[in-house]
Amino acid sequence: MKANLEDIAKAAGVSKMTVSRVLRGGTGFSDDTRDRVVKVAERLGYVPNKLAAAFGSYQASTLVGMCVPRLTSGLFAHVLDGVDRALSRLGYQLMIGANNHSTEEEEAWVRQIASWRPAGLILSGRNHTPATVDLLRQVAAPVVEIWELTTSPIDMSVGFSHYDCGAEMGQFLLRRGRRRAGYVGALARADVMGQARLEGFKAVLAQAGHPLVDQEVLMDMPGFYAGYYGLETLLARGSDPDVVYFHNDEMAVGGLAYAQAKAIRVPEDLGIAGWGGMEAASILPKRLTTTVVPTTAIGKAAAEALVARLKGEPGQEVTVVPTRLVPGETG
Q1: Are 195 and 163 contacting, i.e. CB atoms less than 8 angstroms apart?
Q2: What is the pTM of this model?
Q3: Which positions ≥6 away from 311 have C-beta within 8 Å?
């Protein structure tokens, strides 16, 4: 049940008009009254309705908010395209934000977008602050969590298992005869989905009796240069891996560039594998060993699931969109 001005007025012991003036930044009341009203509003989880403030009356929203890790991510650009195309076809508009792999930044974004009374929200990942979860329940709009599949979503989930992606790559590289695998990643533990891939990868290797020999996880954002100097740092330690699994394809391509610069033959001297399915990875002189993520399909499925819920149509709570391992020529 969402709190309204009357609820705040009753709890604070003031008039509804006073509450309205306080929340609009008006004057004509004491500091004590202002503080009391603000504290009550926060305690009740009140979210101001910017549409009502702008137009004077409530209108059925066609706005859908979507929060992604980074606006510069090539993979999420395709997800956004899938969402936007599907929503436009169904009569809805998309508002985009980024959380920079921070649950606190996601919470701030949700708080801001909630004030516009969106028709629904699409969030990346399944990890949120308790305050975000509480706020989503107060907003009472459909929510789709994408990218990292969860069997117990806030509302709906569309995606795949990152742990399984890492495990599948580990099994594949073992079948290719690799026995001394290393890992180069980024964002440390800020990217829980990348961490899940690493955990799946490590688990399979350990079960086979060939545990990960070394890893270099940078604090930097994943990218070509991070992959280049990440591999340089890893190899400088002398752990002598026969294959390196990278956080994503961009980093893997950076690793390939380093290998070429140092006359390291791929895959003869060192195998390299990525994740994500970056378009350029398929047209390299040697096709990259990677996992392709159906980004556009995930976006389309998320948008359609959300709109179906808005229309009261039956739908799945959890939608699995499978990934595909590409053997390539570098692993």
Answers
A1: no
A2: 0.81
A3: none
